[in-house]
Automatic annotation (TrEMBL):
InterPro entries: DUF1194, vWFA_dom_sf. The keyword RNA-binding does not apply. It comes from Roseovarius litorisediminis. The lineage of its organism: Bacteria, Pseudomonadati, Pseudomonadota, Alphaproteobacteria, Rhodobacterales. SUPFAM superfamilies: vWA-like (SSF53300). Coiled coil: none annotated. Keywords: Signal. It holds the Pfam family DUF1194. This is VWFA domain-containing protein. Residues 160-169 have a biased composition (Polar residues).
Length: 246
């Protein structure tokens, strides 16, 4: 059975790689992509382990994080701005791009995206969770958009371990091989080792990290801190190079 599972994983990986090549060929034919500082997929767990109130809490928290003065300032100072999309994930066949790609570069564009996130209807509430399929889906969105980021990132947030599809690390490794960093935000819900699971099998790439937040804690604060760390990388590196001269 283990050999069959490994073979299925190899076949899925090959098919995924082929689909990405076809997407890249189509983009090349369509024209040069628009340069941005960061491409970011916010992939939020919408499986049945997340109830309606918790779903709204997550959407409200993400939206308010983008509305915060700290994130608005970071985005406005990014060279080329930031391209962001919102994904709802559970099982592979139910994954859904809840809010399409948006190019954020100022107060108006960022708050407009935040408003769409806050009002996004819930979709893809499956009975299982496949972190690997969430990563595969997110990689395809990055490979298939019209942007070219200096940094490319997937932000996986959820409360379960993967219980369906390929092992998360197989998808994680493919993402990293394509210069895409995978970060995590865990909502343990009784699983004290969930953050360790994410560290071992989910996150990867340059400066990859995972944060954790309890259901009774401030999701807005957790998301703001996460976005600050994900989006501030070029501003921090520029400051180190420039010192007080910039």
């Amino acid at each position: 059975m283990q050999g069959r599972s490994m073979k299925s994983t190899r076949i899925a990986s090959r098919l995924f790689a082929l689909s990405c090549l076809l997407i890249q060929a189509a983009i090349t034919k369509a024209g040069a992509p628009e340069p941005v500082a960061v491409e970011l997929v916010l992939a939020v767990d919408t499986s049945i382990s997340v109830n309606a109130g918790e779903y709204r809490l997550q959407m409200h928290g993400i939206a308010n994080a983008f509305r915060s003065p700290e994130i608005l300032d970071i985005i406005s100072r990014q060279p080329g701005g930031v391209a962001v999309t919102l994904v709802h994930w559970s099982l592979g066949s139910l994954n859904h791009q809840a809010v399409g790609w948006h190019h954020l570069h100022d107060f108006a564009t960022t708050t407009a995206f935040a408003n769409l996130v806050e009002t996004a209807p819930r979709q893809g509430a499956g009975r299982g969770t496949s972190i690997a399929d969430a990563i595969y889906y997110s990689v395809k969105l990055i490979e298939g958009n019209t942007y070219e980021g200096k940094s490319r990132k997937i932000d996986i947030s959820g409360d379960p371990r993967s219980n369906s599809g390929s092992p998360p690390q197989s998808a994680r490794d493919i993402a990293v091989a394509r210069n895409i960093t995978v970060n995590g935000l865990t909502i343990p819900d009784g699983d004290r080792q969930l953050v360790d699971y994410y560290r071992a099998y989910v996150i990867g790439g340059p400066d990859a990290f995972v944060l954790t937040v309890g259901r009774d804690r401030d999701f807005t604060t957790a998301m703001r801190l996460k976005l600050e760390r994900e989006l501030n990388i070029f501003l921090s590196s520029n400051a180190r190079r420039c010192g007080t001269a910039c």
